[in-house]
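Entry 14. Ran structure prediction on the chain below.
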Amino acid sequence: MQHRTPDPQDLSPAKAARRQRILDAAGQVFLRHGFRGATMEAIAEAASLSKVTLYSYFRDKDAVFDAVVARMFAEIRAAFLTALAASGSLRSRVAGALLAKHGMVFDTVGSSPFAAELLEKRPPVADRARLLDRELTEALAVALGDAQAARVLFDGAMGIAHAAADRHALAADITRLVAALVAG
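Output, structure tokens:
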């Protein structure tokens, strides 16, 4: 019999809360040990669950990792789109959206020595990241009314995020980029 990971929407509130606890714990284990160094045993221990319980939610480490990434990307998407739709000037909304995306990634994985392994070396993550970036760039293009400017801003903010030494520098440089390219 093949193990099927339960659909999160089919879970009772108690099981959904346990699943979130697993994802919280797994996220920390992946950040501390990288994908290769993380084990189902370590995830179960960090979530204060038995391995049997963990396996009743996820078939293997790949499934846990995919769920952690999917949740993080959903949070990034929501934060970006919320900031872009907020009240205020176009400039402040664009800066807020770009900072929401890159700030969340910086805060979540920026301090992990395994950031590159977790975000770029795993093909499913890279593929999902490209799809998310395309969607966010398109939303930015709609807000700006200019697809090329959206691409330049999005790519420029990504470059800033990769080079940022700290959260303050990230925010300051993204704000400068937007101020230079977006009309007041």
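The first helix runs from residue 13 to 37. Will compare against last week's run tomorrow.
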